[in-house]
Amino acid sequence: MASGVRELTGRESLLVWAGVVVWVGGISGAVLLVVLAEAVPTWAAATLAAVATGGLMLTAAVVGRSALRRDGLERTVNVEASALAFWITMGGVLTYGIVDAFADVPRLLAPWVLFFGLVSWSVAQAARLNRYR
What we know:
By secondary structure, the protein is an all-alpha fold. It is built from four helices and no strands. It has helices spanning 10-36, 42-68, 72-102, 110-131.
């Protein structure tokens, strides 16, 4: 909030919280379904995955739109770091997928992709901030 622009409006905050509740609710519903049901119907799993994904996408869209309202250097650094982290993460996942097709490597799990993306963004953010000092 260094630029003087409020990060999220009241409506945006409400939408972010609603998106998080829907996201966590969809994931929790899927976990409960797996734990409680002997056989999980494909339609039920797909519906819960769609609900959770919708909540996450709503949250991401609202937060992303808020980030684009920032001005100057803060916006530039965030956009550049996000772009770099995206390409680094996608390149790493693509490379692993190609190697996986030919070699017997461990299955790539989503938490590791997320961790790699978070580390990539942190390194890119630090590099971009250092560049503009």
